[in-house]
Amino acid sequence: MRIDVNAFLGGYPFAKVPGTSPGDLLAAMDRVGIDEAWVTHLPGLFWRDPTAGNAWLYETCRSSPRLHPVPAVHPGLANWPDVLREAVAQRVPAIRCDPCYFALAPSGPEMIALAAAAGAAGRPVLLAVRLEDARQRHPHDVTPELPAAAVRALVRSSPAARFVVTHADRGFIEEVHFGSTPDEARRIWWDISWIWGPPEEHLATVLRTIGPERFVFGTGQPLRLPEAAIAKLDLLDIAPEQRAAIESANARAAGNGATP
Amino acid sequence: MLIDVHAHFFPERSPRPDWRAYNASRLRAGERIGITVHVTSTLGTFGLTSPTYFPSPADVVYGNDFTIALQREHGVRIRGYACVNPNYQDHATAEIARGRAAGMIGVKLAASRRADDPLLDPICEAAQQHRLPILQHIWQGRRRDWPGQEASDGAELCRLAARHPQVLFILAHVAGGGDWRHTLAVAPAYPNVYLDLSGSGVDGGMLEACLASVGAERLLWGSDITMDTGWAKLRYLQHLLPPADFELVAWKNAARIFPPGSFPSD
User: Fold this and answer.
1) ipTM for the complex?
2) Fewer C-beta neighbours within 10 Å, C or N terminus of chain B?
3) Does the model's pTM come out above 0.90?
4) Is A225 on the interface with B (CB under 8 A)?
5) Of A161, A166, A206, A165, nearest to A184 (Cα)?
6) Interface residue B72 vs chain A (CB under 8 A)
């Protein structure tokens, strides 16, 4: 069983990206052996009201049981508690809020309120550090990357708050993990999509120093080839049970069992 | 058969105290991926005693000596580029000749000078004389200067390639930073420019765009400093390409552009 916690549906505003339809995503999952995916409506992340893509996302996932919706929640919009309640009613594994893309202070009062409420509702907040390599972004794509300090501040803000952080590299992960208490660190899961394999061996290093229980399988597809996350795992020497935890069990734990 | 045209091993005199473990990791991962030959370059001391992209003549010699020793130690498993700094003309051309005599199979130009600078012309003439391809470090679509290097982009390399149509150029790491679309817009018109697919990027649509730009006949597989992303692109190419075209990218194009006898299949 392999669950991708970091997948998108829909077009990307800054570049032509193939394979963004639900059918294309499912075909890519079949190609590389991914059973289920947590999916977000990608164009919505760039809309003034990112939650406007949620209805389509719910409808799409209802007709594709392998896809699990991760809807956007914008805590700067007054109706966000309703959006969160709807997400919980839809049994989502996580809700998504990318403060830098939504032009919110990354650890400001809106984010802190959302983190606490989502935690109380038993749902982690999923955040991306970045969607693209900063060196290649469109000249008009000037969205800052999520700062590590914001993740530290958010996890400290509420004992109920939980997070799945995607597209983080080794330095970011280590800075947050070892800058947090053990209890705080236990409430963060990291996807492996942006962690380098050999010969730098960043993934092997953090699995050894932080532990496999904190890592989940994520690809960033279709913006990134899903083959990359699998290749990283295939280049590791880890016990089968550890790999299974990264590929599915940890995601189930992070999603509070919402993913079947 | 699989040839990695863009590899690096670290020497003892470098900023990495873990250089032995790093090199062992590359070889171990290479075995798992199925790499037959790593074609490597050593950029001086990688910053220890002169800048990585502006290596001093002494560091150039040290780095090339290390590469030559790797070739001797590992036989056909590792082949080398002679890294040179074109600001030291006579030294650079002498290093190319020395490297070729020691079995090196290409020339590596880092970022000591823009790719279209006239100082590169004697390097190209030496490469042509020894029938060596030139691997040129490239920033895809450079929009500003980057610290620590005098980076070139694809358009600048193509200007050099136009001046030296008999020399074969490897445009480094299309997936290694910057906007690869900038490179793909200029490369098709220059048949002596080959694209190396190495780099940490695994963008959706990138490989399709590379194939549409220059075709499988001008793509070379490589990893640079992230072998996991290299393997990912290789796996996706197996899905995208018919077997004959996949073999071109995996090794046959490399076998064609490097000197005869460089690889076990020759």
Assistant:
1) 0.96
2) C
3) yes
4) yes
5) A161
6) no
